[in-house]
Amino acid sequence: MDEKFLKSLQEQPRPGYARALRERLRQLEAEKAPARATWWQPALAGVAAVAAVVALLSLPSVRASAQQVLDMFRVRTFAVVQVNAAQLERLEKQKLDPEALLGGKVEKLVDGGKPQTFTDLHAAGAAAGFTPLVPRALPAGFAADTMVVMGASESRVTVDTKNLRDLLQTMAITDVHVPDGLDGQRVTLRTQTALGQRFVSGERHLFFLQSASPEIALPAGVDLARLGEVGLRLLGLESGEAHRMAQHIDWHSTMLVPLQPDATSFREVTVHGQRALLMESQPDAPPSTGNTGGHSERRRHGRTVLWTEQGRVYALMGDVNEVDLMQAAESVR
Amino acid sequence: MIGRLWALDPARDGDWDELYADQLPRVSNFFRYRVGDHALAEDLTSRTFEKAWVARHRYRRDLAAFSTWLLVIARNVATDHFRRHRPMAPLEEAEGVSAGETPAEFTERRDDAQRLARMLAGLPDRERELIALKYGSELNNRQIARITGLSESNVGTILHRTVQALRAGWPQ
Fold first, then answer.
1. What is the pLDDT of residue A176?
2. Which chain B residues are within 8 Å of A25, Cβ to Cβ?
3. Number of CB pairs < 8 Å for A and B?
4. Higher model confidence: residue B20 or residue A271?
5. Using an 8 Å Cβ cutoff, are A112 and A150 in contact?
6. Scanning A4, A18, A121, A320, which has its CA 20 to 30 A from the CA of A171?
7. Which residue has the higher pLDDT, B136 or A227?
8. pLDDT mean over B62-74
9. To the nearest 5 percent, what fractions of chain A are helix, strand and coil?
10. A68 and A219 in contact (C-beta within 8 Å)?
């Protein structure tokens, strides 16, 4: 009785059944369109995921006592890392999240609760606990739709390096190493209360997200550049390039933004005199590799601008042209 | 990741047809191993996909693979089913594989796969669920640990013991 035999009960679903079920789901699609208020959630998830990745990149490469003063990461700037789509897909298949990367125990210290939806900005601001900024110059035809507030959350991860080593091994990365001394270290990830405003014009939409920077508290006495190099290698950078970039980046304040070179373009711009990152999604760009593991995505034309100002992170995104997007960003007050 | 905000927007992504085609065999085979009976497995698979579709906006790609998320729902569907239908012994359900046959016909025609199905039906719930996730859905031990809340090493140990028991019980 081998593995193959143990799988011998597997069967392909009957074609008729598969078709009928798909039809049933199509009916459900028609009956239950997705709730508009929740479409922004993955955007916040994206912020949290970045925080998690930075946690990985910021782990100490030397043994650090738990009693040492904590080091702190806050977003002040962004750095783009161009990686190939195949590498991202491989990472996604390896479950790039805190549990998978850092292994060990994950404790939810503060639960952000369910997102709240508002139609009144003052009420949303009251729920968020801050006075929200607003883009004053919207593209023609756009009007405020809904606002959403997601509560702050905090998680503590106790590091188990075995998973990270396994991941490096799986990705065939042998030129960087995860030090033994990391085991048992604690990393705390905090996301702050975030407020999102949605503006619509027919089928087009614009979304403005604002939040205090996510924070990551980690043991002090760390060689962030060395661990950053591990992260950059995981993102697919060549050995020499990863080393150079790791030395150049300020790992205490730089959020990495991995971009698929065939799917997006990006460049540095300014918003309110601050350095900002403008990214553009290509319309209907096909996946760059043939096998997408079932997660190919149809990308529509869209632009995102990211910037930080006075300790807060802002993202404005929409299917609008660059001039309109940048005017809206500059008008945020 | 932020650079992929657009890609993460569920209003924009979700080639549901492709996801559906990808994941349907994984979920239906989970139930094939979990409950044995073909028709019941299809019914529970349908229920899983319907629940998943209605809740799809709650899926967060950064937290779990879609297949893992879907199998968490499948597992809950199975739990609900067993809670409501506990009087039906798993062994009888597995014999549904050859429903309609006389015992003599069953004995005559049963093949290795049917024999395996019967042995699975005799397993305790937890062991059978792990076998279903491992050999029906083809998850690795880490993914199974996430879904079940067991530790990865515990999953490995239980699966090892269960396969050993199946081997021991296999007619020579």
1. 86
2. 16, 20, 49-50, 53
3. 175
4. A271
5. yes
6. A4
7. B136
8. 76
9. 30, 30, 40
10. yes
- Calculate how close chain B gets to A295, using CA atoms only, in Å: 7
Q: What is the pLDDT at residue A271?
A: 93
Residues of A in contact with B12 (CB under 8 A): 297-300, 302
Q: Report CA-CA distances (Å) from A312 to A47, A308, A330.
A: 13, 5, 15
**Neighbouring C-beta atoms of residue B104, cutoff 10 Å:** 8
Sheet (strand A302-309) strand order: A116-118, A143-150, A194-201, A204-212, A312-318, A302-309, A274-281, A264-271
Confidence at B99, pLDDT banded by 50, 70, 90: very low
Contact B16 A304 (CB under 8 A): no
Interchain contact, A80 vs B3, CB within 8 Å: yes
| pLDDT, tens only, A112-158 | 888 888 899 999 999 999 999 999 999 999 999 889 998 888 888 78
Q: Which residue has the higher pLDDT, A219 or B134?
A: B134
* Closest residue of chain B to A279, computed from CA coordinates: B3
Q: Cβ A299–B12 below 8 Å, yes or no? A: yes
Q: What is the DSSP string of A82-126?
A: E--HHHHHHHHHT--SHHHHH-S-EEEEE---S-EEES-HHHHHH
The token pair that represents B51 in the structure block: 């629940």
- Residues B131-153 as b or e (16 or more Cβ within 10 Å = b): bbbbbbbebebbbbbbbbebebe
Positions in chain A short of pLDDT 50 = 32-70, 98, 262-263, 284-300
Q: Which residues of A touch B13 (CB under 8 A)?
A: 297-298
**Nearest Cα to B10, choosing from A240, A312, A35, A68?**
A35
Does A9 sit within 8 Å of B3, measured CB to CB? no
Query: In this complex, which of B9, B18, B49 lies closest to A39 when CB atoms are compared?
Result: B9
Tell me the nearest-neighbour CA distance from B95 into chain A, angstroms. Answer: 14
pLDDT at B96 over 80: no
Sequence-separated contacts (24+) of A94-99 with Cβ below 8 Å: A94/A167, A94/A170, A94/A171, A95/B64, A95/B65, A95/B68, A96/A49, A96/A52, A96/A53, A96/B62, A97/A49, A97/A52, A97/B62, A97/B63, A97/B64, A98/A52, A98/A55, A98/A155, A98/A157, A98/A189, A99/A157, A99/B146
Q: Which of A259, A295, A255, A292 is nearest to A275 (CA)?
A: A255
Token code pair at residue A308: 């930080």
